[in-house]
Every structure is written in C-alpha cells, then in structure tokens.
From TrEMBL:
Matching InterPro entries: AKR, Aldo/ket_reductase_CS, NAD(P)_OxRdtase_dom_sf, NADP_OxRdtase_dom
Family indicated by similarity: Belongs to the aldo/keto reductase family.
The NADP-dependent oxidoreductase domain, residue ranges: 26-260
Organism the protein comes from: Emticicia soli
UniProt xrefs under SUPFAM superfamilies: NAD(P)-linked oxidoreductase
Chain segments annotated as coiled-coil in the UniProt record: none
CDD domains cross-referenced by the UniProt entry: AKR_AKR1-5-like
Keywords, alphabetical: NADP, Oxidoreductase
Protein's recorded name: Aldo/keto reductase
Amino acid sequence: MQNQQLFTSLSNGAQMPLLGLGVYDMYKKEAEQAVLWALETGYRLIDTASMYRNETEIGNAVKQSDIARKDLFITTKVNNDDQGYDKALKAFDVSLQKLNLDYVDLYMVHWPIKFTRKFTWKALERLFHEGRVKAIGVANYLIPFLEELSKEATEVPMVNQVEFSPYLYQEDLLKYCQEHKIQLQAYSPLVRGQRMADPKLLNIAEKYQKTPAQIILRWAIQLGVSTIPKSSNLERIKENFDVFDFEISEQDIAYINGFNENLRIVDDPMELL
C-alpha cells in the first residue's frame, strides 16, 4: 500500500506522522512481525517504551526493513523505575542500544512520577540539546502537570501522549496543547474495542462506508491529534491505515465529540500520583 501519510510539524520543526503503530503488550516475534507488517503497509511512526520490553524486537524490524532511517519516526519512553536525572540518561543509553539506532526521534517521560519527573525532564532536555534525540515529550501529562513543568523547563514538550478517544474526549487538554504548541497524541484511541458496537458510531461508519475503527482514527486526525492504534493482526494493521481517502464532515466531527463518557481504559494520572 502506498504511503499516504499526513504529517504534523512539531514545535522544533520535526515532521511526525499523524498515524503510527503502538506496540504495547507485544512480545518477541509478535512485536517484530507487527512492525514489519506496519512498515510494509505504509506506517512510518512506531511507538514503543522501555516498559514494553520489546525495544530489541522493534530495532530488529527496523533493520530488516528497506526504509531509510530518515523516513522513520521511532519513539520510546523512560520507564518509571528509571526516572531521575542520572538514571534517565543511563536508561536512554540502554534503550538506544536495544533499538540498535544512532538516535531516537522522540523520547518521552512515560508517567509524571511525583518526586522525579522534573529531574527526568532535565535529562531529556540535555539529550535533546546534545542532538541524541530529535524531539522530547511527555506522556500522561494532564494540564496541572504541564503547568508545573512550564515553571521549570527550558524546553516545552513537543508531544504529549495521553489516553484520548471519542469516549474520553479531553477537549480542555487538546485546547491547552494547541495553545502551547504541544502536539497531542492519542493512545488507546480505539478503547480496546469496548465501544465498537456503539449504535451512534455504527451509524457514522455506515454513512461513510468505513469501519468503526477507521471512523475513530479519522476523527482524531481531523482534530489534529496524532494517534497510535495497537495491533499485531495484519488485517487490522491495514484497516487502521486505510483512513486517508475520506473526510468526516464538520457536523459529524462535532457529533462524535459528543460521544464523550469520560471512559478511561488506563489509570487516571491524577488519581495515581
């Protein structure tokens, strides 16, 4: 399938695809095969993390592909146990070695851990200034965490990856990120399949002759939100990428916005920390 990707420009000028493959809860050959299939399909953004324990397999797939490194966008994240200035720097070296890469396109603070997050961010700023990462960002940062960071940081996060879907439509966070030139990125955009039978979603899918998953992913892209659906199934990987040949009307985008139930699949960062 031809690469029809849409891209977003991060605040530092880096180009990031709006659609990528998430590889959470994939291990060994499953992860490696999923990335190979995704790259063959046209994906260029692969999102992993130290916590996922599959960086080696992601690196193997990248090496096996015939795609130029400059055309790929590889993300990984600092594990919670590795937060803090010195520990984060060492953790990055380990991740880079496992990925078998010369640099990472995006390195992120995985969770806003209370006593270490500001020191972790300082480490990421150093990696960015040294050119070892092309962009730095945060994950699971709601507005209070972003506001706290703004008082300490010399660099504004280029990306904020959070749980985001029509059923967890965090409009205030989206607006905040847009105002501060932080690219919002959605994980678990498909709610792990829990709302695929929603009659409202099925009606929209029928209208556009697309699957419910394709409607959700296209909705996110049209909001300007990068999205990283996870799948290790070839047909699903292809289905999730087939979202560049149609547009949802503004009226229907607004309708989908109204699906919000504040439904979280993952823990609420505000309640944990």
